[in-house]
Amino acid sequence: MTPGELRRLYFIIRTFLSYGLDELIPKMRITLPLRLWRRLVFWIPNRHKDKQLGERLRLALQELGPVWIKFGQMLSTRRDLFPPQIADQLALLQDRVAPFDGHQAKRLIEKAMGDQVVETWFDEFDVTPLASASIAQVHTARLKKTGKEVIIKVIRPDIRPVIKADMKLIYRLARWVPHLLPDGRRLRPVEVVREYEKTLLDELNLLREAANGIQLRRNFENSPMLYVPEIYSDYCSQEMLVMERIYGMSVSDVPSLEKNGTNMQLLAERGVQVFFTQVFRDSFFHADMHPGNIFVSYESPEDPQYIGIDFGIVGSLNKEDKRYLAENFIAFFNRDYRKVAELHVDSGWVPADTNVEEFEFAIRTVCEPIFEKPLSEISFGHVLLNLFNTARRFNMEVQPQLVLLQKTLLYVEGVGRQLYPQLDLWKTAKPFLESWLKDQVGLPALIRAFKENAPFWVEKMPQLPELVYDSLRQGKQLQQSVDKIARDNQSHRARQGQSRYLLGIGATLILSGTLLLINKPEWEWLPAGLMAGGIVAWLTGWRRTT
Predict the structure, then answer these.
(1) Is 137 annotated in some ligand binding site?
(2) Which of the ends of the chain has fewer CB neighbours closer than 10 A, N or C?
């Protein structure tokens, strides 16, 4: 490791220990060396004993920077895995990260606008930030041209070197994993880290986020389920984004939602519908759906509508992955474990030589106890964890293209269960998936494919005679080449046969000559003649092998 990486690693360890996070280490025999090592590091005491563990964890992640804050944001949605005192504190990472100076933000905005003062384009610019996140900070203003209220998002100064330094260290740690864990190579840690790095670096380009927002707004135009604010692309740059200001309640503010008379069951169900619509209908999904990025409109509480912001991280799946995922979900909840096992093999997620019967039995062993509960109580998070542990025996590799999807699904489940604890995720998702699969393989899919390809076929129709002629000519040339190769092979085999025959004759003549020479025959010239003939036969046979 380089000196810089060692310093950063020491800083991370010192931060965790100074906040007393060694309390999270379970008291088990396997963790005894780690706990003994903690006692040896006596010069880094817990400096925050007056604070609760959840607050200390939040402050430590906040101090470590964006990479760690994003990790905390993901954990905050898993209230079924963490006690409320920890989950509540981690939720504060969504929009309460310490802001940087507002006047510095104003200077960065002016620089992004070509060194023009903010007042050239905006009125009522507020130097006090509306929200501050791990990557960027948000200020409010009003467009001078139209008078519309907007928010201006600006990237934190000097954030890129911090992210690159942390990711470099994480890469090094990821390369150690295959050597430290028995099945570390199967986890594909480097590929996963590379995918995570890509999503973080994408967030640093606000032009990309603007394009993502425009796409999502178009996908859900006039939708009662989700509203995506308007992006003012004329004012956007790589370092700055200008977007319509929205007013709504945070999806994590359950008391306010209930006070407003929100239909919590419908709201929770619509969250699931929005997720599956993005994944399977659009192949373009918001992959950072933590509570800090999701709001609920004050209007029509009986027909609630989500409002989505922060489009820096999006994901997509190809047709094959979508098909396999949908079929896996349906087979899993229909308890068709044989189908689940076969789909994993067909998709290449487990090796082709996997024993399907054994894999099916392992899945059944894990899943049957889960299905003893009502579907409304089944956690996708626990199911995924159990299946992941089961798959170790069958060399299932981590699929980097599915990491964002899995994380987003956990977000959706966490938020949905927080809004409506009785949420039956499967009851909401199954009709959608069955309808989507039917649409992919039925007559509508055939008609749609014909419509999509018809312009191409019409364009190529005049070229059809020439293409047929070229195909026939190439087929004839190919046949001639095959015939020539066959003749050459036949000739080669004949020469090989003659060669073996001559080599055998040569060996016989040389051996006979040698035996006669030993026995001193009456005709002394005979052994020499036989041996000479054998050598000639050998040389002739050897030449025919080349």
Answers:
(1) yes
(2) C
DSSP secondary structure string, 348-409? TSS-TT--HHHHHHHHHHHHHHHTTS-GGG--HHHHHHHHHHHHGGGTPPP-HHHHHHHHHH
Residue type, 234: D
Is residue 136 annotated as involved in ligand binding?
yes
Instruction: Tell me the β-bridge partners of 308.
Output: 294
**Catalytic residue status for 439:** no
Residue 214 in marked binding region? no
How many angstroms from the chain centroid is the CA of residue 361? 28
CA distances from 310 to 206, 277, 467 (A): 10, 19, 50
Domain boundaries, the chain: 3-91, 102-315, 319-445, 479-545
> Is the confidence at residue 13, as pLDDT, over 90?
no
pLDDT the model gives residue 263: 94
Please answer whether residues 423 and 91 qualify as being in contact, where contact means their C-beta atoms are separated by less than 8 angstroms: no
* 3-class DSSP state of 527: helix
Q: What is the pLDDT of residue 256?
A: 93
pLDDT band at 46 (very low <50, low <70, confident <90, very high): confident
Is 383 annotated to bind a ligand? Reply is no
pLDDT value of residue 183: 53
pLDDT in the model for residue 244: 95
C-alpha to C-alpha distance for 200 and 68, rounded to whole angstroms: 11
- Catalytic annotation, pick one of 101, 158, 282, 288: 288
153 labelled ligand-binding: yes
pLDDT band at 435 (very low <50, low <70, confident <90, very high): confident
- The secondary structure of residue 141, as a DSSP letter, is E
- Provide the whole-model pTM: 0.68
Report pLDDT digits (tens) over 156-171.
Answer: 887 888 788 888 877 8
pLDDT at res. 75: 64
**CA-CA distance, 149 to 139, in Å (whole number)?**
11
The predicted pLDDT at position 290 comes to 74
The reply, when asked if residue 490 is annotated as ligand binding, is no
Single-letter amino acid code for the residue at 474: Q
